[in-house]
Design brief:
By secondary structure, the chain is mostly helical. 57% of the residues lie in helices and 8% in strands. It has 7 helices and 2 strands, in the order αααααββαα. The protein has a two-stranded antiparallel sheet with strand order 1-2. Helix 4 packs across helix 5. The two termini are 13 Å apart.
């Protein structure tokens, strides 16, 4: 167990794990992250529906705007959707003329994805909605708080990747020691 959990509500002084009731849902970060994500996604879906978009379509267009040439699997990973969902989404986007698939020059079996000008226009029309939601989420959050929040999320993501890969979480350089 990470050293910085000792002495907090996350680990008792008696060496036993606290119950979820002792921690409380409003102090349990995974619960708060899921709650935020679900609320954000539900609201985003409602906002995008008025523009004829879905969350998966917007994520695909957003990512392809800044990272063209991805494969379906790469795009699905970055968009945080199942590969099968992304494939169906890309079929729809291709049908709308928003994306195109192209064989990779060094391996004709691999298909890369590119956003079209029509897709860029569709994304540009929805970007103010996305940015407005983003700005509203962080209203009242100071720049230094935001920076610390992003840094913390990156540390937690690294720990999650280590966990998935079977490695123990490693304390980051410069972290305070108890």
């Amino acid at each position: 167990m990470a050293k910085y959990f000792i002495g907090s509500l996350r680990q008792t002084g008696e060496g036993r794990l606290p119950s979820l009731g002792e921690i409380g849902l409003n102090q349990f970060a995974p619960y708060l992250i899921n709650r935020l994500s679900a609320s954000y996604n539900a609201h985003l879906q409602d906002v995008l529906k008025d523009n004829g978009m879905t969350t998966a379509k917007m994520r695909a267009l957003s990512i392809l705007t800044i990272s063209p040439g991805l494969t379906v699997n790469e795009l699905a990973y970055l968009a945080v959707v199942e590969q099968s969902t992304m494939s169906r989404t890309l079929d729809a986007l291709e049908g709308q003329g928003f994306v195109r698939r192209q064989s990779r020059s060094d391996d004709m079996r691999v298909r890369e994805l590119y956003i079209t000008e029509q897709g860029r226009t569709a994304f540009a029309e929805s970007w103010p909605l996305l940015y407005g939601l983003y700005a509203d989420l962080f209203a009242g959050v100071e720049a230094d708080e935001y920076d610390r929040f992003i840094d913390t999320l990156h540390k937690v993501l690294r720990n999650m990747h280590r966990r998935i890969e079977g490695e123990a979480a490693v304390e980051e350089p410069g972290e305070a020691q108890p």
